[in-house]
Amino acid sequence: MSEVHYELFVRRKVGASWTLEMATEVRTTAVQNAEEVLTSGRAIAVRVTKETLDPETREYKSVSIFTKGMVDGGKPKKEVQDLDPLCVQPSDLYTSHARERIGRLLEGWLARHSATPFELLHRPDLVEKLEASGTDLQHALQKIAIPEAEARGVSVHELIRNLQSLVDRTIANLTKALKKGQLPDLDKEGFAKAATRLAADPDRAFLLGAGVAASIAPGVSWSDKIARLLDLADSAPTDPVARAVAMQAIEQPLAEIIGSRAGMADLLGTSDDLGSTLAAMTRLTGGAQVEALIRVQSNVAACMPELSGTARRLSDWLSGDHFAIVRASIARRVLKELNGVRRLKPTDAEAEIEFLRALAMSLTAAAGRILPAEDIQAAFTTRSKTLLNGEFIEALLGRDNSAREEVGLLIRLAENVMGAVNKRQAARWVSANITSLRLEKELRQGPESPVAKMTILAGLQRSLTRSGLVREDYEPLCAKLGQLGALIEDDSRLVAMLVRAPAPVGQRLTLLARMASGEAGPTGPVAERARMEALKMARTPEAREAMTASPAIMDLVKGLLQTSQAA
């Protein structure tokens, strides 16, 4: 760790002690993760501390900079149950859970050396650098020992001594294997040959993992390391037993790189744009289902970035039966981000809605392959809540849109949120704008022709009925738009003007019929007036001649007659 870093501690439940969740050198990352932990319900309280290294004593001084939740959540219980056991053997450090903890404790150091926990555990040169770094390893042991000792009721000094002994034994095993020449050189021997030779060895995972770690060490970027791992996968042996061993050795570092934000961003080239990152991740793992959706849905295709180079190679591998852990790692990342508070498109609220819709369609199409359908629905329901707060609504509506455009944007928002509660909240936003005096004034006094205004209102009504709102919410809003249409018709006497217009009778009858059906005008009083006048006009000789000459006009009039009889 550097001289200043930040640590996130969490309290899981009432009466529990504080435990270390993560450490980072970026203050905003620590605070953001603290908020996400609370939002997702994984803790009842969070605390972020600033750790500053004293150059004289070489000890870290801690200052709390952020606390939230049930900070005073009761005294720790004397009897602690269901605690995960500490690692006691060197082999314990190679498990996925232990590697994940190592990654959090040494996050800064690993980032500076562009390495993963898997590489650290399998590369003697990295171990040597860590030992030479001075305080990084010691401070990592302290960070895990202090909360663990408190939770288990043992001495901190004793726990640190045990952990240090475990680390020393692990390093000794790695060094011993190096000196005996047991670590394979895949560049010389070949991956397939080494995997076949080690398939029956009790230490095959460790030995072959060391070979894989050494093979990807020259990689200058995360994407380069992934490419090297895929090169190894391409050369894996065909024998089922040896192939399974080989793929497992590749999958572990691949999952760690893909599971990190830096690794994923470097692979996909999406930087800090969360929406594009999640879209690319979905395309990366979605397989044939997502590709088929992209071909038939233009709005999905517009949001899904093209995969090229290493990302395309990885996508081809993930579309098969290999690397299930990698797919699970990506799925967890997608769920975590969707359940988080980060904006998909911080500078473009409309684009955020489009990306959310594309993601929902794509993940639903691939449901069961990378994520359960119920988890997808729950994640988008949670994400929908963030679209209904005042800050996002203000960003969506902006300052230059007309009242009509704002209503259209809010209806679009209502169409794309999920969850009954969120739909009801979206309906309230739409209702507030439709019933506003501003919309009425804008439409009644606006420069558009009466026919254009009627078409606008009809379009808004159709959008409401397709928005997914319950009938009890959208019907009163449609009725309000119909009343507004009646006011505009009263101002312009549009129906009477159409009846007396010098245009051909077929043209007038068509427009009246379209208004009556809700196509060229809103349902309600205007539609009823247009229906009555259209039926009256249809009885005239001129109209009968027009209907005889035009089957389309005849069909419109028949539709009006059927509607009248049904009413």
Features:
single chain; 567 residues; mainly alpha; four-stranded antiparallel sheet; 30 helices; 4 strands; elongated
Q: Shape from CA axes?
A: elongated
Separate helix tally? 30
| Radius of gyration from the alpha-carbon trace, in angstroms | 32 Å
Q: What is the makeup of the main sheet?
A: 4 strands, antiparallel
What's the arrangement of strands in the largest beta sheet? Answer: 2-1-3-4
Tell me the distance between the termini. 77 Å
Number-wise, the strands total 4
Give unreliable regions as ranges.
75-84
Strand content: 5-15%
Q: Helix amount, in percent? A: 55-70%
Mean pLDDT: 88
Given helix and strand content, the structural type is: mainly alpha
